[in-house]
Design brief:
- The structure holds two protein chains of two kinds.
- Chain A is 33% helix and 24% strand.
- Chain A is α+β, with helices and mostly antiparallel strands.
- In chain A, the strands form five sheets. A five-stranded antiparallel sheet of chain A has the order 4-5-10-6-7.
- The longest helix of chain A has 19 residues.
- Chain A is globular.
- Chain A starts with 7 loop residues before the first strand and ends with a helix.
- The model of chain A has no long low-confidence stretch (mean pLDDT 95).
- By secondary structure, chain B is of the alpha+beta class.
- Chain B has 17 helices and 34 strands.
- In chain B, helix 5 crosses helix 6 and helix 15 packs across helix 16.
- The chains are: A alpha+beta, B alpha+beta.
- At the A-B interface, strand 11 and helix 12 of A face helix 3 and helix 17 of B.
Amino acid sequence: MSYDCAVSVRVPDSLEELVTGLAADPGCELLAGGTDLMVEINFGRRRPASIMSLSRVTELKGWSEDAATGELVLGGALTYTEMLQPDLAGRLPALAQAARTVGSPQIRNAGTLGGNLATASPAGDTLPVLVALDAVVVVESADGRREVPVGDFVTGAKRTALRPHDVVHSVRVPTRRTRQEFLKVGTRNAMVIAVCSAAVVVDLDSCSVRVALGSVGPVPLRAHEAEELAGEVLDWDAGGVLAGDAHRDGALERFAGLVSAASRPIDDHRSTAAYRRHAVGVCARRALERVAA
Amino acid sequence: MTTVSAVSSTAVAPARVRSASLGTSRKRPDGGPKVKGEFAFSSDLWAEGALWGKVLRSPHPAARITGIDTSRARNLPGVKAVLVADDVPGNPFFGLEMKDQPVFASDVARYMGEAVAAVAADHPEVARKAAELIEVTYEPIDPLVDPERALDPVTPPMHPMGNTVRHISVRHGDAVASGDVVVEGTYEVGMQDQAFMGPESGLAIPDEDGGVDLFISTQWLHVDRDQVADCLALPPDKVRLHLAGVGGAFGAREDVSLQVHICLLALRTGRPVKMVFSREESFLGHVHRHPARMSYRHEADRDGRIVKIEAKILLDGGAYASSSTAVLANAACFAGGPYLVPNAVIDADVVRTNNPPCGAMRGFGAVQVCHAYEAQMDKLAAALGMDPVELRLRNALQPGDELLTGQALTGAAPVAEVIRRCAEAPLPPGGPADEPGSMTLPGGAGRTADPTRVRRGIGFAVGFKNLMYSEGFDDYSTARCRIEHGIVTVFSAAAEVGQGLVTLVEQIAEDVFGTDKIIVAPADTGVGSAGSTSASRQTWMSGGAVDAACRKARDSLLDLAARRHGTVAAVLEVREGRVVSFDGEIDETIEEATGGAAIEETVEFRHAPTFPLDERGQGDAHVSFAFAAHRAVVDVDLDLGLVKVVEVTTAQDVGRVLNPVQVVGQIEGGIAQGVGLAVMEEILVDQGLVRNASFTDYLIPTALDMPLVQIAALVEEPEPGAPFGAKGVGEPPTISSTAAVAAAVRAASGLALTRVPIRPEHIALAAPRQGEAGS
């Protein structure tokens, strides 16, 4: 027998070349920042026979504003560092906050939004933010383009709606008048995988609150009952702020309790289910207090 | 002119204040290259035609091995050797204190990660694949993972040498003495890892003489050499070790990891073999800090003077002995802390289990007990209604006091001074940030903190441990000084592992010869043993050896010059790299002074002898001690249980500062490791399986976790018998920094928190609080 450890690496120059190549070789792994893939390879968990690099596919890079819809279009290869730049961070502060919690500066320079989505780790830091922002994933393949809401895109722990020949083209984020916040608990003060996280978006256009939770279930979870309570408690006439009696009547405690109840955490080496359930409620409550004070 | 002579540290003159070199912050010769990424670590080595080695490890913590089929691996193209236990020509076992660990497991695997086979191939991927193709038939057995069960005499032994590696009873003073105030507690310390950055790696090159040259990162070349030679059935001089660039050690490189495997592969294939552990292998392939369970009872009189300490200490040594016996001795000897303890009843055990093997780590047995005795001191202070610092001052050891081992404390022991200086230092101004989500609050970049739910706490702790090896060990260090063609070359096998001895050797030699034209030769086994770079011993031991060798060579040089000039050496001296007479008549270069001859002096330097502990745990087992005090200021998020260590202040007994920047570096690094143990660092083991063998999940402090370090005082009270009066400074920073942080978190949270590392759930999900302290 023989052992061939060679890997074919292609570097397509355009989106068209990329999707054509993917159609011809659907088992091919896509390499953007490599912050997930290279770890898998180094641990021997994945040994792809072929890899395609996204480094020269300019269509996937950066972000723009869709003049027609007003939506923000975030490229699949948008890096965490780019999410932190003031122009974009000013528009999507919760996404910037999530990006800031990812790894070290070197990792943030390399890792991408599309990679976070495609890996679909339960601890993926941008996922709850995208869910709370009502974002839609634009998926591209040789068959054409389709749009999948983020909540439907992530189908399970490390499972997505991506087919083998698909690539994450971009993410469309509706532009509404919002206040947003993202909090993440880890067992050190930086460069840590989430033990739990919470994204809270107060949507002044729809007079509603969206709460999405990370790392407390196989996929990012919405806390619908907590959202409803928050929607009732906020004084929308006053600009979506907490009504003066919210603290007094225990609404915030109930909000935290409903968030905890919406979580489906597990025990693992990073934390316990009991702590995650508790902490995600605390985080969501604090996030709400910050954006609705 | 070559001589070998022995020098004992008792013959060394006490501290001398000299030269412009010692006492200055000379820059490290390897500092620039390391910062610029140009330094060659052991993982960067290469030799023409080198093969890649790979070790196959047991995935089971306990299993019988009923078969190993290597045929598929051997048949893989590119594979040059596949070795198992039968291929070991010499002693099939190795070990630092007991030869109890097999080079390859053959009949039974006793821990997850134990080596079973080794492969050499022409490409690292081929080696990895070949290791996968080795078919090992395991019959998993119930792992013995509870050290209490291992201690139970009815539990069957998991190793032919039994489950108990060592038991120490300390019986000091009056066992039935009693005090007015009694506090009790049970404490735990988790399994910390040394977490060095440079993974185990090396290059073995076979020699035509049947021997092998091994380039390796290690803490003690000669003890590696002796174990490799024994397993290879080679005379020691056929196994030549050379120190390669070491990427941190902290105790984890005291044991053999890949040394035997890589040499076996090189000798079998006749080609150089390189091996580099992955991070996961590194976590599985070196020893950790012993987890500890400790039950304490302190009795004191109404004035707060300790009357008696009773303690039971149980260390989990994991599958093999490593340095467990010495770690246990430290735990037992220092179980009372740096306090006068007139009566003590201490029983300490270290046992084998199917958990990962544990051995040396910075602080070595003293760290674990410090967590317990300092928590007890705080409890005692609370029970007495006394200030915790005052209680410690009242009990602080003083020169002449008896330790609980019966040994009289003879050296410098500024215990009260380090306590006082640390306690008197100013506290950080202000309190926690009041801006929600500030990254300086607990939770850091996660921005989780609500300032109204953050409490500040302050904790204080004092610790101590021995310097150098103890219990009668023949502890020595060799150094050689050669003067030839006017060039002074210093030879020492002492391992530079990042601590800075390489700088200090230059400073010492420069001090003797008055010139900076000194060459420090690479460390290898071509010179005698320098002993281990551990136990805070190299400044004293190899520093002393280098100083003695250089001075002896200088004296020989002056003798030689005096004879050539028909005078006596007493009128000559070496000044600024020249040999000069007092009257200026003779003024020549060192090269001229030697007249073409070479001078070589080799010195074996020993510290004052130590003695074994007797059956009552009494004896003059240690030669010297170092003390430090730490005060931690922490902010705690009460609801999330997250901790920000704001500041750690320290005062340390250092004897004499020889290189201020390096002392500060050791203190800051040691505090980082102490903080890590307090709030995050732990190898998580579940039924013998390691759950976090990566830097993704084995968390060490980042810049946002590292507190400001305030050095309130470096207490310079020269140590009698120590070269230059200097004490080792590497370990004391880790000993009580953990205890101080834990105390501060207790103060902030009002919780008992008897286990470190303290995890967020221990705070956030704790039973109803005893009352919230803090601001």
